Amino acid sequence: MILAGGLSTRLYPLTKQVPKPLVPIDGEPNAIHLIRYLREYGIEDVAINVHYLAGMICQRLGDGSDYGIRLHYLHEPELLGSAGAVKQMEPFFDDTFAVIGCDELTDMRLDRVIGFHRERGALATIALVHADDVEHYGVVILDEAGRIVEFQEKPRKGDEKSHLVNTGVYVFEPSIFARIPPGAFWDFGKNVFPELQRERAAFFGLEMEGAYWCDIGTPAEYRRATADVLAGRVKLPGNARARGFPSDASLGIGVRIEGNVRIGSQVSLGAHARIVGPSVVGDGVEVGEHAAIVNSIVWDGATIGAGATVSDSIVGLGYRVPAGALLSDAIVANEPPAAG
Question: Where along the chain do the CATH 3.90.550.10 domains lie?
Answer without folding.
Answer: 2-231
